[in-house]
Amino acid sequence: MSVDNNQQPPRRINELTRNTIALILAGGRGSRLKQMTDWRAKPAVPFGGKFRIIDFPLSNCINSDIRKIGILTQYKADSLIRHIQQGWGFLRGEFGEYVDLMPAQQRHDEHSWYQGTADAVFQNIDILRARNPEFVLVLAGDHIYKMDYAAMIADHVANQADLTIGCIEVPLEEAKAFGVMDVDDNRRVRAFVEKPENPPLMPGRENTALASMGIYVFNAGFLFEQLIKDADTKGSSRDFGRDIIPAIIDKYRLNAYPFLDLQSGQQSYWRDVGTIDAYWSANMELIGVKPDLNLYDNTWPIWTYQEQTPPAKFVFDDDDRRGQAIDSMVSGGCVISGSVVRHSLLFSQVRVNSYSEVNNSVVLPEVNIGRHCRINKAIIEKACQVPEGTVIGENRADDEKRFYVSEGGVVLVTPEMLGQKRHYVR
C-alpha cells in the first residue's frame, strides 16, 4: 500500500495548512509508565536529553506549517503547562498563530471531565466553531516521531475523504494493542476494530496489520456533525476508535494514510514510549551511531524550551579518577567529575561524582550521583540525590526491595523511593 506522491492536489498545501487547526490530546496519565507519571501527564515526560514527549507532535505541526494549535490537557497538567508557556510562546498572534492550552472545563456536564478522545474535542466544539477551520487535525500527544502533516492533509483532499487516518504497519501479534484497520487496495477503510484478538491482515501481506497512529484529519463540518451525534448516543464511550469511526465507515469516505519514508518507501520511525521498557529502549536508540530518529537533522528540528546552562564539563585525568563519557549523550550543565559514563543519556544539570560508573542508563535533569556508585540499566528520575556507594542494576532481588523493576529488567528510581520527599503532601 503506497501513497501517490506525484498526484498534484487541486489546492496549494500552504492554503490547506493555513485553514487547519491541530488539536493535541495531552490529558492522559500514562499509567504504564508507573511512578514517572505520578506527578506529571505522560506528554510532559522528558525524552531524548532535553525534550518533552509533546515537543515531537508540536514540532511536527510547526515544521508542517500548521500554526493554529490547541493542547487539550487534563491529568496533572502543571508541568506540561509550564513547559508550553516557557518554550512555545514564540508564535505571532497578530498573524493568527497560536499554541493554546485548553484544559477540561466541564462545559457540557458539570459532573465529568473528558470521558474519551472524542469527548475531549466535543467539549471544545464552541471554540472550534468560532475559529472556523476547514480541517481539524487530531493528534495524540504521547508518541515520538517526525511526520509532515501537510502531506497527509493534501492526500486527504486529493482523495475527497471525510476522514483520513494515519497508520503504521505492525506485526500481527503487536496489532492486538492498537486500533486496526481493514482496507482495500485503494486505501479505503472497510473496518476498524480496537485491540482485536484476531487483527485483519493488510492486503497482500502476511503477518502484518495496519494500525492506527491516533492521527486523524477531519473535514471540520463533518467532525462537528459526528461529535454531536455521538454525544446524543446512549452508551457511547465518547472515543474516536471505539465509537465514532466504526459508526461512520459504511456511509462515508474514510481513507488510510500510511506513514512511510518518501524516499525508501519503508515504514518511518514511530515509537509509543508508554511503558518503562519502551521508554528506556527509545532513549537508548538515540545513542547509536546512526539512530533511526535523527535529532541532528536541521531540516526538521525538534523545538523545545531551551534552559540556559553552561557546557557539559569532564574533570580529572588520573588513572583511577578520569571524567569521561563513552558512546553517550550528555546535555548542558552536566559535570562528569572523575567518573565514567558509558552508553547512557544524561539530561541537563546532572552531576556524576568521583569513582562512580553509569552504564546503559537514562538520567533525568538535576540528578546528583554520589561517589563510588554503580548504576546499570536504570532510569533515574528528576532531582534524585543518589547516596554515596549506591549499587543499582546488579541484583534484581535487591533492586525490587527499593525500586520498581520492569519486565525487561530496567530499574526505575524516584526521589520518593530514596526517601527524599520531593513531592511531599501532608
From TrEMBL:
Record site feature (Could play a key role in the communication between the regulatory and the substrate sites), residues: 74, 113
Domain Nucleotidyl transferase as annotated: residue spans: 22-286
UniProt xrefs under PANTHER family: GLUCOSE-1-PHOSPHATE ADENYLYLTRANSFERASE, GLUCOSE-1-PHOSPHATE ADENYLYLTRANSFERASE-RELATED
Gene3D superfamilies: Hexapeptide repeat proteins (2.160.10.10), Spore Coat Polysaccharide Biosynthesis Protein SpsA, Chain A (3.90.550.10)
Biological or metabolic pathway of the protein: Glycan biosynthesis; glycogen biosynthesis
Coiled coil (UniProt feature): none
Listed NCBIfam families: glgC, PRK00725.1, PRK00844.1
Pfam families: Hexapep_GlmU (PF24894), NTP_transferase (PF00483)
GO biological process, one term: glycogen biosynthetic process
Function in brief: Involved in the biosynthesis of ADP-glucose, a building block required for the elongation reactions to produce glycogen. Catalyzes the reaction between ATP and alpha-D-glucose 1-phosphate (G1P) to produce pyrophosphate and ADP-Glc.
Protein name as annotated: Glucose-1-phosphate adenylyltransferase
Chain's gene name: glgC
